[in-house]
Amino acid sequence: MPNLADSAFAMDFLLAVKTGIRNYGFAITETANPELRRALHKQMEAAIDLHTEISDLMVKKGWLHPHNLKEQFPIDLKSAETAVQIAQLNLFPNDTDRLGMFATPNK
């Protein structure tokens, strides 16, 4: 289970960095100030380097196979199945009506 959690955290981090890179690119195209544009470009390059580090770590650990669909597909399928299983867990009592108060676990 820790391996599954670690791979999920790494994937979330990778996707967040990727979103940041995209946003830097957008900000660079919208910026008229050359000094700010250079600063954003420098930050974007650092984010690209971080993306490379995370990707390399995930490939090394066997959590990501960007060039091999046959190896990546079972990993993605397992992640999807785990997400469905988590969604089906009964985490809260059925009766949560406590007249405006938070539900408390049964003792």
UniProtKB/TrEMBL annotation:
A Pfam family that the UniProt record links to this protein: Coat_F
Organism: Priestia megaterium
Subcellular location, record wording: Spore coat
Top-level taxon of origin: Bacteria
BP terms from Gene Ontology: sporulation resulting in formation of a cellular spore
Main location, first listed in the record: other
Protein name as catalogued: Spore coat protein
Family listed: Belongs to the CotF family.
InterPro entries the record matches: Ferritin-like, Spore_coat_CotF-like
Keywords: Capsid protein, Sporulation, Virion
